[in-house]
Amino acid sequence: MIRTTHRRAYALAGAALLAAAAGCAGNASSSSGSSSDDGPIVIGTSISLSGNTVLNQIRDGYLLAVEQANAKGGLEVGGKKRKVELKVLDNRSDTNTMIQQVRSLVLTDKAVGLLGSCCQQNIDMQGQADALKVPLVMGALPIELLPKGKGYTWDSFQSLADGAKDFFEVAAGAKTNKKTLIVTNNDAQGISTGKLWAGTGEKAGFAIAATKSVPTGTTDFSDVIKAGTSSGAQVLIASMTPPDCFAMWKQMKALAYKPKLAIGLQCAQTPGWGSLGKLGNGTLVQLNWSDTAGLPDTDLIVKKYGKKYTNLTDLGSVALGLHEATILMDAISAAGSTDAAALNKALAKSTTVSAQGPVKFVDNKSVSPTFIGQWEDGAIKQVWPAKGGSPLASLSGLG
Amino acid sequence: MKTPTVPRGTPKALWPAVALTTVTIAAFAFAPVLSLGQLDLGVTLLTYLTIAQAWNVLAGFSGQISLGAAAFMASGGYTTALILIHTGLPWPLALLGSGIGAGLLALLLAVPLLRLRGDYFAVGTLAVSVALQALLSNWNWAGGASGLTLPTERIPSGGNLYQIAVLVAALAMGLALYVRHSAFGLRLAAVRDHEAAAAGLGVSVYRHRLAALVPTSALTGLAGAVIAFQFVVISPDGVASVNWSLNAVLMAVVGGAGTVLGPVVGVGVVYYGLTRALQDQQTLSLVIEGALLIAIVRFAPQGAWPLICRAGRAPIARRRKPTPGADTVPDAIPRTPEHV
Lengths: 399, 340
Description:
The complex is a heterodimer of chains A (399) and B (340). Chain A has eleven helices and 17 strands. With 399 residues, chain A is α/β, with parallel strands linked by helices. Chain A has two domains: 202 residues, Rossmann fold (3-Layer(aba) Sandwich), CATH 3.40.50.2300; 140 residues, Response regulator (Rossmann fold, 3-Layer(aba) Sandwich), CATH 3.40.50. In chain A, helix 8 links the parallel strand 10 and strand 11. The termini of chain A are far apart. Chain B has a single domain, classed as ABC transporter involved in vitamin B12 uptake, BtuC. Helix content of chain B is 71%, strand content 1%. Chain B has 14 helices and two strands. Chain B has a two-stranded antiparallel sheet. In chain B, helix 2 packs parallel to helix 6 and helix 2 packs across helix 10. The longest helix of chain B has 27 residues. Chains A and B meet through helix 1, helix 3 and helix 4 of A and helix 1, helix 2, helix 11, helix 12 and helix 13 of B.
């Protein structure tokens, strides 16, 4: 009887597998709505909406752009207006999930274009865009960090060099000994940021007293803080993912390390910074958007999301999402086609003016403006450029 | 003392082998008619099946609970990438190199790891994974944290990649079948169930644990190479992620560790049924995954496949009502088909 059941089980399993395979084969010729001439144009994004990094604001910007386009009847492709369908997948901040989702968006959902996530994930996503030959429009990755790919990735964001230059101009106006401590994550973005900011700082007359790189997830910063205190660094540049940076600020307070000026790249740009309360006061932050800079669609963003998001970094992320999606959709309209090669050519010639200003790609990169802001009681005030901004306050949180 | 053996070439092993061969040939032959999306999904499912089955042989059949699958995935993926990028060798040799590389790594790691037992072994393998990921993040020749991009013009894709994934998964299934039906597997089970007693019967515990560790690691390395071909870009965050280890455990446990078809069911349920089907609802997917694991551990610790087998056997058992005086011993034997 056991043998009979063995055979039966294997026969059933084999038959099920064959039937599943046959079912798949039967579907081989079917296609998703986007590939038909009348269906919606599918745009896809695998974005981090849970886990270490939460980018709801960028997602909202994407949705706003699609809503605006569909309100006008959609995009004109092949002489017809077609609605846009944005397929958003949460990759849980996991690289493998992101890669599998991007492949699924392109190969199964027939997405004609992709929108980015953030930071290191964008670098990993570039490889998929190149391999699948599908245009990817991204922000949230400083343009210097975009690796040389095969031409399918388009980065419209601020420049690290501009941010560093602006920061050191702000720092030059503050009373410090110009000794600088640089702390970054040890990933590609962190290391490149550290080198670039160090070079810019030295040119601006600042001395790089110590440089430290730490893995993501570091909880003990005593070694870093010791380097700051022993070198007497009064200027701190930290480029880290959010939770790590929060821990470092708390430990700096506990160990009485009191720099006179500090900027939190990445980490202070997230809403979580507000949870530090007074400890976060005075920390500088690099902004990609400001509501006082006269950028396009500012009123639209503030009207739609001003209540949901109350600080500049969040609204800046909405602006970023709106900007990226607008670039991609404008390119689809300009190409008059959803063909990847035509779309890529249209992106190269993009003259879109959107939430982060005008776009002009050179080597697949387009620089958007940079602002320096300062945290004060859970809100951010623009301190650079001085026009439209507030005066620089002291780093009272760590003082 | 003579070690326990079972006769070779018994019909018990024949039918599963025939079924495996048939399914492999069928899956292989279907490649030309599948769409790119289906092929890509197939590669992912088959890769998960390979790592889940390799874990199953190591943990389910030989009792070595490992959290080190990620280390061997990374080893396989990076070996393939480095061979392709830094030498002019073709991809079949890179693929072969990935298996050999992962096997050699396992051989090297066996020296410290096989001194450990139970939870300590699991923690040891986890430490190896984390250390390897950190090493890769800081190893510039291997691309550092940014990783490596494989030369797309020299790697298999689409139908060819799917067929490679079929063969690699078939190897993993074949290994599980061999372990399930061979004298070697019986000795492994003895080591798993009572190491001291197995040693007392003359089974070399170290050799058998090593013999389970090395081929399963080589198989995981081959899966790493397949993923490298599929992803094209590999980085420490991706191919060396500890999530590979966790998924291997989850899939094998949900399907049924210590059974041949358990990982097949586990991959179907966990990846296709939850991760993929609920990819629009990631939070819900996570919650269901967690609840499912708790339910499996609490109510069906042997996994889903034994449950399915038992459910399938119930009608047969009802039809064959025991006649007075008939021998009912086979039904009472715990060595039931759910161990298939």
